[in-house]
Each structure stands twice: as C-alpha cells, then as structure tokens.
Amino acid sequence: MVIDRLRATPPLNSRRRSYLRLAEQTDAPLIHSLRSDPKLNRFLNAPPASVHDQAAWLKRYKDDEAAGLQYYFIIMSGMQERGTVRMYDFRTVEGLRSFCWGSWIIAPPPVIGLASYTALAIYELGFEHLNFEHAHFDVRRANQNVVSFHLRSGAKIVDEDEQDFFFHFSRDAYVQFKAAQAHTLTRHSAEIPEAEEVAAVDS
C-alpha cells in the first residue's frame, strides 16, 4: 500500500531531529488548539467547533489516507510537536500529476530553518516518493511572509483573486530549492544521538 511505503520514507524517519508523522485521531486536541489560536489561524479556514468535531474530521481523514487521497502530518522537531502540514487535492495540472499542500502551521517559539525543512520534506515526499510531477497551492494575499517564502523557494504566481495568490511549483524548482537549502536539510535531517533521546524520556 502507498501508506506503508510513505511511512518508510526519510521525511517520516522518527530518529531525525525534525520529521513528519501522520496525524491520528488522538491528535485532535493538539490540532484544534493550533487551529483555534488567533495568532496562528489568521490566514486559515475556520477550525471545527470543538475537539470532538476535530476528532470526527480526523476519523474521516484516515479513510482518505488509506485510499491515498490526502496525507495530514504533525511536524516534529527536537522531539516536540511543532505544527501541522497537509498534502491533498491530487489531480492533473497542465498535463502533469500534481499535489496541493497547505494547512501549514508552525507554532512559536521559532526553530531556525524548520519552515524551509518542512517545505523540503513535503516536496521530497511529493516528487521523490509519490511520483508527482508538479505542485500547486494558494496563499492568502495578506499573508505576506508566506507569499515571500514561496517566491524565494521558486514557486510562480499563475493567478490571483481578491483573496488569494495561486502558485505552481515545478520539479526543477524543487531541485534548485533543495540545493540552495542543503545546510538546512543537513541540520534537520540529522539523526538524534541516543543519549539525547534517553535524556528527553527521563526529563
């Protein structure tokens, strides 16, 4: 199954300093808390009304996950849950098999390079492990920090409306972005020494 192959990919390697793990129903309180935080949700769709509703959404999501229709991840860094990111809307764009990504939240305090690493991890999953040829996504026009991030990463604005910019991102752009962020990839993909893991468990 695709999901079994996905679990074995490097971005989901739990020994890394930063990695992605698939969201579970038990993550409902965490996800609802992040999505309900007014400092984090300014540019997101409204969250479910309650933790119970969030858990119900996650239960339905797991059916989509099993069918290979979307993947929702918890962002882990330094053995802590730091945010969320999602891959979805798998379809053909300009004749190329494309994926969308979003629901991107990284909670404070900031971790140097974590945003870039998260994007790299999503692109690695899409282009190297799930055989997509293209990515597409939209960003609220007012979310200038994220708009600027995507432009620096090599994404192109292909359309816009009063609320959003619509981006395309190519496989070639991913290769260039990965090369430019080699130091970030090295830093966050390094495996945590066992001594640090033991200290974290004992603390």
Task: Provide keyphrases for this structure.
single chain, 203 residues, alpha+beta, seven-stranded mixed sheet, 8 helices, 7 strands, disordered C terminus
Task: Please give a quick description of this structure.
The chain is α+β, with helices and mostly antiparallel strands. The protein has helices at 2-7, 28-36, 51-66, 114-129, 144-153, 171-180, 182-189, 194-202; strands at 18-22, 71-77, 80-93, 96-106, 134-140, 156-160, 164-170.
Task: Provide an overview of this structure.
- This protein is an alpha+beta fold and 203 residues long.
- Helices cover 41% and strands 28% of the residues.
- It has 8 helices and 7 strands.
- The chain has helices at residues 2-7, 28-36, 51-66, 114-129, 144-153, 171-180, 182-189, 194-202, and strands at residues 18-22, 71-77, 80-93, 96-106, 134-140, 156-160, 164-170.
- A 7-stranded mixed β-sheet has the order 1-2-3-4-5-7-6, with helices on both faces.
- α2 (28-36) crosses α3 and α4 crosses α6 (171-180).
- Residues 198-203 have low confidence and may be disordered.
- Beta content comes to 25-35%
- Percent of residues in helices comes to 40-55%
Residue windows where pLDDT falls under 50 for at least 5 positions: 198-203
| Total E-strand runs | 7
Average pLDDT score = 94
Termini separation comes to 37 Å
Radius of gyration in whole Å, from Cα? 17 Å
